[in-house]
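Posting here for the record, re: iron/sulfur cluster.
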Amino acid sequence: MPSPDGMTSEGCRAGRPDHHLLEGMPTVKVKVDSERCQGHTLCAINAPHAFELSDIDGHATPAFDSVPADQQEQVREAVRSCPERAISLS
Ligand code: SF4
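Prediction output follows.
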């Protein structure tokens, strides 16, 4: 039976896609403009868990829609590092 904080006997809120989001943190969504992305891979260097790279051309796609709170600063650094300004947050 889950406790009031969402913990279960199996661990933290198993089965909830947003279970790494911290309570009270604003939701941040990340997108990569596939027309702008040139496959520099700098985003994945700055936020290795937040982006998946194509094996063919290195183009990036977000690994998730909503950024977990503990990765938001890394993703913001990825936005700053992208030379094509292909990454946007909302
Ligand atoms: S740094 Fe920018 S251009 Fe380079 S792979 Fe990442 S999103 Fe694409």
